Amino acid sequence: MNYEEFKLLYEISEIDYENVRKLGVRIAPAINDFIDRLYAYMREALGYEFDVHFPDEASLARAQSLSRRAWLEFLEAKWDDAYVKSRVRIGEVHAQLQIQPRHYLATMNKSLELWSHFAHTMAPDQSDLSKLIESMWRVGQMEGALVVDVYSQRTGEIISQQSRALTDMSTPITAIWDGILMLPVVGIVDSRRAQDIMQRMLEQIAEKRAIVFILDISGVAVVDTAVANHLIRMTKAARLMGSYTIVSGLSPSVAQTIVELGIEVGDMKTTGNLQDALKIAFDRAGVEQKIGAK
């Protein structure tokens, strides 16, 4: 997290922090009133979302306590490493709870409005009050941007992890024997999925040191030119990794389609069913010899 970049973007200086601290001394005593008004606003503005995030009094009280502490820290305006880390943590929590950035930013804006109200009420004789409030808003907006930036990064990481999990589920590679891997492909194979399959396939070949890799396409809905080309690329890539690839499950209709489309399968080894593919795989891996030796 490059905190200095945020300071430059929002033109924050040490004077702004001094102004926030100076204002904080006057308005911090209103923290309880501030929290009550803020959460009353959130309850009305968020509606159903409010009840989702705060389903009972205990969770609501805990959230209010954390908010109270966070805003008192804000008014102290130390903005040291510990403070920045605490704001990063807020962004991470918002991402985990899937609190929408628009809700957080609207709440931040309302918070600054409330503090401005308390400033005018509790420090009306402050000669430089407008400058103090201006600094408070600028620092508050910078904090909001920092939290949302962290939220965006963490949400991206969560989506990436979920995507990876879905890819693993859709490419269930199984080790059926030492050195022999098999992947049953089901459904539609488009360019994106073909790339995912190839990446997972090559990773597993390298990790398991596979001698033979069986791609069973008996569950593939449609085999056209694009699908056939994807399969050819997969077999070539596997060969470069030192693994012999067998494409099994070619039905008569699929074989006829490939011929009619004029697709050149090259050196790609194909079989009509998985049983034949297994026989070839065991033979190449020397499984029968190993069993006989035992």
Describe the strand arrangement of the main beta sheet, using strand numbers: 1-2-3-4-5
- Overall domain count: 2
Q: Estimate the mean pLDDT confidence.
A: 85
**Shape assignment:** elongated
DSSP helix fraction: over 70%
Number of strands: 5
* Content of β-strand: 5-15%
Number of contiguous helices: 13
List SSEs in N-to-C order.
HHHHHHHHEEHEHEHEHH
Main sheet properties: 5 strands, mixed
Q: Would you state the CATH class of the largest domain?
A: Mainly Alpha
Poorly predicted parts: none
Distance between the termini: 59 Å
Rg value: 31 Å
CATH architecture of the largest domain: Orthogonal Bundle
Could you say which structural class the secondary elements and strand pairing correspond to? alpha/beta
CATH H-level superfamily title of the largest domain: Globins
Q: What's the arrangement of secondary structure elements?
A:
Layout: H1 3-9, H2 14-27, H3 31-46, H4 48-53, H5 57-76, H6 81-97, H7 101-122, H8 129-170, E1 174-177, E2 180-187, H9 191-208, E3 212-220, H10 225-240, E4 244-248, H11 252-261, E5 269-270, H12 274-285, H13 287-293
Parallel strand pairs: 2-3, 3-4, 4-5
Antiparallel strand pairs: 1-2
